[in-house]
Structure formats: structure tokens, C-alpha cells
Amino acid sequence: MAIMQPPSPTLSSLQPNPLGKRRFRPLRFVVWLAGAILIAAGLAWASTQVSERYAPMLLTPLGCGLLLGLLLALGMKAVGAGHRTSLLSGSLVAATVLAAGQHYFPYRAWKSQAPSGAAVIAAQAFPEVADRVSRRDASFIQYLRDEANPGKSLGSYELGPVGVWLFWGVSALAILVGTAVVIVPATRAPYCDRCGRWYQSLRFGAIDNQTARAIASLVNWGDIPHGDARFRLWGCTGGCEPDGCELSWLVSGRRAWIDRQTMNTIVKLIDLSAAAQQAFKAGGRPTANQNAQPTADARQTE
Ligand SMILES: [Zn+2]
Questions:
Q1: Domain residues of the chain, as ranges?
Q2: How far is the CA of 242 from the centre of ligand 1 (A)?
Q3: φ, ψ of residue 118 in degrees (nearest 5)
Q4: Using an 8 Å Cβ cutoff, are 76 and 83 in contact?
Q5: Which residue, among 213, 211, 207, has the nearest Cα to 225 in the 3D structure?
Q6: Mind giving me the DSSP string for 206-267?
Q7: Phi, psi (degrees; rounded to nearest 5) at 265
Q8: Cα 16 to ligand 1 centroid, rounded to whole Å
């Protein structure tokens, strides 16, 4: 996991900071939230259908939460909503809708089952069944209470009424955790507050240490770790500056926000490094000279 450093101080004058504060855009938030609630309700309905027909544990609460988080993050990128506090609050609402929906849809199904003729006759003979039939008018809370009261067997455990409520609470918490695991890091991704678009990863891959050092000196990073690095280049999809450049090693990483000119220079360095690597693979002969430029040129002229 790469440890990201704050934007390079020499370039912090570039505005807006892609990791900084973001404006609240009400229309985008409302569109995203409406979609989020619909998605959460849809997931709740689908998960109750699946657990009824197949295995109850097939879609665990954590899995449902992760899926919800993923869909919310995709929606957030599509709509261009970037205001963190509102996105996280909205995700909490969506996770609650999902957790409650997993009880609410079975309740609706249970309520819609009109008592059959046989049940009505039986109700006249057996008061306790009559009680069950009359509960077709039960509220959601009453339904939950009646579901919890007989207890529930969970594997080899027998849960009492309180245990069932606790189990539901833990399931709801697992949904929330699953959602948060995806949405919290997603909202921390770079965002352009000028045009209201999320940054996109434009290019990524591996580079040799020599190229990494050349990039590091361009963005005033000083000393960097030894060994090959992985790079990632970021850009606003609307074309605004600054661009982003990220280098990471096994246990550390750095990110800088750079102007377009520096970005173009870095792209050239990476292109040369990639050309050199390809030429090396194609030629299959090791060269003492690790300089990218001559190797690439030598292959092109052959
Ligand atoms: Zn932009």
C-alpha cells in the first residue's frame, strides 16, 4: 500500500488542489442520492429473493455492503458529485435503506398474502391461527417483533428474541462496514473542483529506477528508494491543470501535482523508458548502457 504525501510544496500554488476542499453541488448530490436510494432498495429486494430461493448465506451482509459501496462510487463518478461530507452521509442513508429493505420486502410479501379459505376456516377453529391471520394488518415494527419472538437457530446456536435483534444489528453493521470500505477511499480520490469532474488514471505501469530518479528530480523530491518503481499519471477529464504524477515502491509512494509542461516531460521520459524496455526484449541482448535514448534509437534505425 502506497503512502501518499501531500502535494509538492513548490506546486501547491496551483489551484484547485485535487485533494482539497470541494464545493457542494446540490443538483448533482440530489441526483446521486436518488439513484443511491433506488440502488439500495433494489439490492435489498434482490438479496431477499436470492436468499429465499438459494442459500441464506450466499449474499452475506458484508458482500451486499461492498456491492452497494461499489455502485455508489460508480454513480458518484458518473454524476460528478465530489463533496465528501454529503457523499458519506448519503452512503449512510443508502446502507440503512439496504439493511431495512432486507426486512421490509419480506414484510410486504408476508402482508400481501391474503389468508386462504382454508386458513379462514382454520382460524375459526383455532384462536392462535386466528391471531396469525389478523396480523395481516400488523405494522412493520410489529412484524419484526413477531419474527424475533420465536427466536432463530443460527447453525448450532439457538438465538432468543434479544439474540435475533442483536443478529439483525450486527448484519446491518456489516452492511455499513462493507459500504464504507469502498466509499470512504473512493471519495478521497482526486477531484477537479473547477469543472466538477473526477480525475482519471491516464496511464500506469512500471519504470526503471533511472527513469524514476529523473522524474523525482523534475518534481523536487530529493532522494527516492532504490529499485524499479510503479508510476501512475492522473488528469482531470475536463482537461484542467494540475495533472498528477505518482510513483510507488513496495512500501512507500509519492504523489505530486504538476503543471502541463512538467507532465509532458514526464510522459516523454516514460515513453523513452518503455521504448528502451521493448527494444531490450526484442533484441534479447543485455547492454551495459542503461541510457534509454540511444537504445531506443538504435532499434528504430535497424
Ligand atoms: Zn477540471
A1: 20-187, 195-301
A2: 9
A3: -60, -40
A4: no
A5: 213
A6: EE-HHHHHHHHHHTT-----SS-EEEEEEEETT-PSPEEEEEE-SS-EEEEEE-HHHHHHHH
A7: -65, -45
A8: 9
Q: Which three cell numbers stand for residue 253?
A: 509512494
The Å distance, Cα 55 to ligand 1 centre, comes to 46
Strand 253-258 relative to strand 197-207, pairing: unpaired
pTM: 0.77
DSSP reduced 3-state for 51? helix
Give the contacts of 200 (CB within 8 A, at least 6 positions apart): 234, 235, 236, 237
Q: What is the tens place of the pLDDT at every residue in 116-173? A: 666 666 666 766 655 555 566 788 998 899 888 888 887 778 888 898 899 899 999 9
**CA–CA dist 49, 62 (Å, integer):** 17
Which residues contact residue 197 at a Cβ distance below 8 angstroms, ignoring those fewer than 6 apart? Answer: 80, 191, 236, 237, 238
Write b or e for each residue in 66-78: b if 16 or more Cβ atoms lie within 10 A of its Cβ, otherwise e.
bbbbbbbbebbbe
Task: Report the chain's terminal Cα–Cα distance, integer Å.
Answer: 42
Q: 241 CA to middle of ligand 1, Å?
A: 7
Q: Crossing angle for the helix pair 209-218 and 260-283, nearest 10 degrees?
A: 170
68 CA to centre of ligand 1 in angstroms: 27
